Amino acid sequence: MNLSATLLWATQATGVQTNATYLGYVLGFGIAGVVCLGAVRRAEQVEDDDVRRGLVWLLGTTSAWAFLKVAYFTFPGRAAEPVYIAGLIFGFATVWAWLYFCSAYTGRNYHRDSTLRRLGSGVFLSVVAVKVTNPVHGLYFGTARVDDPFAHVAIEHGVFHWTVTGLSYALAAMGVFMLFELYRQSGYDTRPLAVLTGLIAVPVAVDIGVLFTPVLLDVIYAPLGVAVFVVGVLYVYEREFIAVDRADGESDAAIVLNDEGRIRDYTPAAGALFPELEGAIGEPLGAVVPSVAELIERDEQILEDAQAGETRYYLTTTNRVSLGETTETVVLLSDVTRAERRRRELARHNRQLESLASAMTHELRNLLQIIDWRLAAASDRVDDGTVEHESIETAADTNERMADLVEDFTAVAKYGQTVEHVESVDLGTAARDAWRSALTDGMTLRIETDVTVEADPSRLGELFTNAFEFARHNGAETVTVSHTADGFAIEDDGRSLAGDPDRYLAYGEAVPDAESGMKLPNVDTFARVHGWSVAVEDGNDGIRIEITGVRME
Prior knowledge:
This protein is of the alpha+beta class. It has 19 helices and 14 strands. Helix 4 (49-74) packs antiparallel against helix 5, helix 17 (427-437) packs across helix 18 and helix 18 packs antiparallel against helix 19 (519-528).
């Protein structure tokens, strides 16, 4: 077929790519690619270096594979064959990424073995060479143009395809075996993880099923299974995923109880976590570690433990095991601090938004009543043939206050979540930058600091902006920014405190007045997302806002 005929056929094919089957395949693989690509950032937060590396590699190769599937269906002309070959390469790379992840996650060292790595690299490069040279020898696959169920290039698999596919399935099955062995040995309720792992095999069954039915296209469906797996382990069952990852008997804290609830044994990790376990063999758990016993009685899972000035969280599970003729209970405590902090931070942020929304609803309702009343008064004066300038100006000012409230809400919604990545920020420079964007109305800024702090620049800027605008409402002429032993202070020379200082930091209190009542709660919000604390007190002349808990250089 000449080039013009090929282009004509491709154009015609593109013209019919709107049927349901085509859209189903494109959306299915497209969503899988987007999900895997979007999960990369979440995977980068996994603490174990090797597990994180394997997950990121797995997600990257799978997303590329899925997107190449979309391109293969979308461009059924001459580009289809090279796109399909590229997909084959990424698909085979996904198998090795899967093995690397499974080895690291289950605590094995196969992914570190230099001999296995060289052997794997040799196999991978050999297979890639066969795939890339398929246009020459044609032993891997052939192509045929078809229009049913939609126009695309159908693949006719050759002997090399079945050999490599069998190898890929065997390697992937090894990884699945490693995971299920870990699930079985961990002692946790791993049924959700087992189901997610089993779902990876569903596309394999579909791959085999297409040989016996014309309903499905003869393509590899594995990216769909991987997408479901990563969503499950990284977003739905993250705490279980982390806990099982650490269930190696060495790092997990485990307490073994006999059938009477008395301590029979414990791991070194449990001894380090609860020093009171030393010499407590034979004692009731509730008498030695009451916090754990109470947690089990309340049928709760998360234990909060504060030591050395830091609070950590442990996923607590109990499993009854049979040792000979004796049935005992194993209490496992796995550190899930990162996941639990994220969950609590999300809950805190939601409560914060609810409080802000409630305060805004009340304030906006009042402002709308003011506008209605003033506009009604102006309308009456217009009917009398006079102009009520005061009412119109008041309505306009009130409208500006409503716009300010919306801006406050937008800033808190955007920046109100806990900071995960900080950088070194010059405190004086950050204050000057915020001063230029704030409504200061002729006030003077005085900088009495040259320190550098670890902060998120955007959130620190919002903190300063709200503090400066509060000072303007407070009647200040000069605002001073200085550093303290463990933070910094923002002090104005306006009015002194009027009442309980804590009310200045609460949404909905309208302290000292409705117009400025949102500013200091916003300051408190942007400080808390850094892990800092805020205190409001009388200064030398006006009000002093002191932020503590700041890491400085």
